[in-house]
Amino acid sequence: MMKALIVDDERHVREAIQLLVDWKSHGIEEVLEAQDANSAIDLIERENPHIIFTDMMMPERIGTELLAWVQQHAPRTKIIVISGHDDFDFVRKTMMYGGIDYILKPIDPDQLNDALAKAVASRKQEDEGSEQEQRKTIEINQLRPVYWDKILTNLIEDPSYYSSIIDTLSSEFGLSADNRHCRVAVLATDTINPAIRRKFAGSEDLLNFSLLNICNEFVRKHKQGVAFRHEHGHIVVILWKHTANAAELLESMNSGIGQTLGSSLEFGVGSERLLPTGFKQSYNEAILVLRQRNMRAARPRIRCFDPNENPRQTTVHLSEYEDELRFAVRSGQEKPIKDAVKLWIDQVEQMKYINAEKLELWGHEFSVMKARWLKELFGDKPITNMVPAGNTFVSVPLDQEGCLSPAQLGVELEQDLLQLSQLWTEHKRQDEHVIFEIVKHVDSHYAEDLTLQNIAERFFLSREYISRKFKQQFQENLSDYIERIRMDKAKLLLMNPQYRIVQIANLVGYKDEKYFSKVFKKLEGLSPNEYRKQGNQTTL
Question: Signal peptide position in this chain (predicted)?
Fold first, then answer.
């Protein structure tokens, strides 16, 4: 909402300006008045008007003093001077202090409105420019973390990148050319307490933003390193100072996370390595540490890489139970699903060692099985948006001690399978409904140019899907059904001698009489004429 201020010690001048200006056409919704410079300054500070009309000669302060004050304290405000003095010095100072125009009394309405239009246009142009600058600044600030995430990811993945950004790392994060060692830690997000995720309303970006702020608060305070988000989604902490004491620093950082979020997290820590190749080596070790954690046992929050660790693990494949799980899904019942899942979970319960790699394997097996089932259950019908994504194996279901809970894992798998089963049940019901709708359509429009293609387009289904489902439901092809309906109608019409054969062919959907006769004879064993004669003899 734009505002204007009229400053003049003569009331009738203020009233004249009020009447002579078409305020609405200029987008000005509020007009204020002041009778001297001091009251004008009070109004400007309080109301921040966009446009000011002012006289030059007023009590206490002259107009040039007001112009100077406005330029210093409200520089974006546009000023139009209205004066009874044709004074060159006044005009010069008006221009010097950024005035838009200098109008002499008596006031010319056209000149006044033209000056206001120019002032409004100038102010809007500046406002738009200011908004663009603000947006640009906001965008730059938003992109800055993304930029550094990319830069630091490249540093991890390609050590040769180090030489090209060493100066930038030095100025931005304090990495000195004297530093020779580095160490990398990776924050585990798969075992984050669900209560923490709920605090952030399920927003992974907001959670990561908070975690990065806490981590950087510790490592950047004394220019020991930097925390960033790797393009693979990990939160990574790079250390290049006091790397031998990395565990202690991470313990302090974890305490800060616990105090802020209510629960500590887990870090995998690579060994101390030489720059610049050490970035990638230590990162890979930190990832390996996290992947080898035993989710079934209580674990240290800060776990350092041990080259001698080579855990042996038993293998219980989820795919070994595919038949039981598939039949349970097809049943559409909750109990068979629970029973099938329990067979697998009973085996998982006996495993003493389960790491992230095993969970990923089960997740992959489940994705493959699910894709195969979808093909079997739904064929080529597009179902991408209908099938629930499911959360099984995406995150680690933990018990109160922070260990993997096979029972909860089983519950999540049951929920996934139950959703799929319900979708399959609903799909079957819809299948039957749409096929009967197609039959109804054919029965009502048999005389039209019915093709599989136009039926498919009408019902938004593929031709292959309709053909297969129709055959499954009625044990005959759709094309055969259409011909049979047409022939049944034709036989009724043939009983009426008033209809010629060519008319009957047209009435049941055949443009070609000869083709109609050929189809009729193929299905009935008689030509239309023979059928008519036979019918008449029977009647007689």
Answer: none
